[in-house]
Predict the 3D structure of the following.
Amino acid sequence: MVVAAGCYRPASERECSVFCDHTVMASPCPDGLTCGADDRCYDTVQCDQRPLDAAVGDDSSSDALDTCPGLGWLHFCPANPHSGSETMPPTFNTSTMCTEIRQSPGGPLCVYAVTGSLTVSGNVAITGPRPLVLVADRITIEMSGILDVADGGAGAGPAACADPVSGGIGVDSCSGGAGGSFVSAGGIGGMGTTSIPQTPNPGTVPSFLRGGCAGGAGGHVLNEGMSPGGKGGGAIYLMASQEIVMSGSIYAWGGGGEGGTGGNTTTGGGGGGGSGGHIVLDAPTITLRSTAHLLAEGGGGGAGGARGVAGDPGMVIGPSPTHAGFGGVANPLCAECGDGGNGSFGSQAGFVGNAASNAFGGAGGGGGGGGEIHWFFHTPFLDVGVISPTPVGSPI
């Protein structure tokens, strides 16, 4: 894959991560740089941090940020940023509306950069296969502003996710799907009377920007009533050379699992909730007002169903932002069906789906595990707000 924007390097590396191919005779690097044996471009002194389309020795571009931003995993000078200040549009697709760079490890990223301020004043629904990186001198999310990568948003369900753990197939009563896992594990899928509970994949701490993982589908009999798990939350990285100021919200929670239905004479387990996604803030100064919300929690598992009576789906978030997604509730017409488990909140794992009480009911899906909120800064000004899970990172 060809890097189409500025020189990128993980903060842990001094070397420049402009990618090249050392097997090609003609140098694939910008003028003055040499392709190393590790397929990265180097100069003789340090990592080159100029835009790829700038000539060596030419640092006079007027359409540039004040400085090349990045204190954390990402540090690069974006090539050809949008000149001036801009407001984010109501919809944004990472397939077409940005420039691709490649992180190593990890998959490709979508970069949208401006030379001045970037403002979020309304709800911005962000979709597409690649995580989004927003770059500016100053990024402001107003009180009415929302960056939304939740429930299958941009970068959700990456290749780094293990296969979802679906509910087991029972002779009659079926287990629920396990919750999707990211930093914290999803909840165990509830047990059917003739199928074992489904253990989720373990949690893992990321070292690059990536989205969350889907929950497992509910168990079924004879391929009837199979209910999908919730989608994982997406991934977004805000990087400013000066400051990030937040009065609004960033949502990266996981989706709720579907409720089990079963066929006309069979049972179905509920789908597991999707895990939360990934939110990264990176700026010398980060200010969070009391109205700010940063949420990357798991979705609730779906309730079990039977004989065509569906259980409720899991919720993507609770009745207030201080609650994770609640598990779906079994239909009163199926008293033997199990409720879904709640999604993660804070540092908790997703909650276990409830078992079916007898052979005539489906079990609930497990709740989704938690994602990650990570920040890199010199100076924080925190007026609290609602943040879950607890952020990781410290002054740099």
In short: Residues 81-396 form one domain. The first strand starts at residue 34 and ends at 35.
